[in-house]
Specification:
mainly alpha, PadR family transcriptional regulator, WH_DNA-bd_sf, disordered N terminus, two-stranded antiparallel sheet, 5% strand
Length: 189
């Protein structure tokens, strides 16, 4: 009796083995992080990736989040609660330094010590970015990469704006109106 019900459970998609989410990644129906289980990055990888991004050009924290999302293929967006502490750690290690742009926002850039650390870790950094490219290609073949990226960008922008303690009721309402309008547009498509 149990065996028959279990087979029905599996056959009708009510059970998925790890690695059988969309595109064969992740778990139960979505949100997977690629062929790897659990977290997107192994220990120390996020630090190297962020360091590589600020070595390309000085960036704001939000730009790092957006760039990571795009490089991974759009289905992953690191939270500010992960990115900003990593930037602080890189700064404390002497690998990154901050400056301010014209609007007074923090820009993160690499230091000579950070460049040396990247040079020592070049094979690992190259392997991480190669993994991102493979993932992006798989998402592109499925036709969902750009949709997922846009959704993650919207989510990150909304969270960042609403977490700012200086958002006025009018600004909050404008965000609500924009989200409602986007939903209506998508429904009509």
């Amino acid at each position: 009796m149990f065996h028959r019900h279990f087979e029905d459970y599996v056959r009708h998609g009510r059970h998925r083995e790890p690695g059988h989410g969309p595109f064969g990644w992740g778990r139960r129906g979505g949100g997977g992080n690629g062929p790897r289980e659990g977290r997107m990055f192994d220990g120390g990888e996020l630090k190297l990736v962020i360091l590589a991004l600020v070595a390309e050009k000085p960036r704001h924290g939000y730009e790092i989040i957006k760039e990571l999302s795009e490089r991974v293929g759009g289905d992953y967006s690191p939270s500010p609660g992960v990115v900003y502490p990593t930037l602080t750690m890189l700064e404390e290690m002497g690998y990154a330094a901050t400056s301010q742009d014209e609007q007074g926002r923090r820009l993160y850039g690499v230091t000579p010590e950070g460049e040396a650390a990247l040079a020592r870790s070049k094979p690992e950094v190259d392997a991480i970015f190669a993994r991102f490219s493979e993932r992006e290609e798989a998402l592109g073949r499925a036709g969902m990469g750009s949709v997922i990226r846009a959704m993650m960008n919207l989510r990150a922008a909304t969270r960042l704006r609403l977490r700012a303690r200086n958002a006025t009721p009018e600004q909050v309402q404008a965000i609500v109106d924009a989200l409602d309008q986007a939903a209506k547009t998508i429904e009509r498509t």
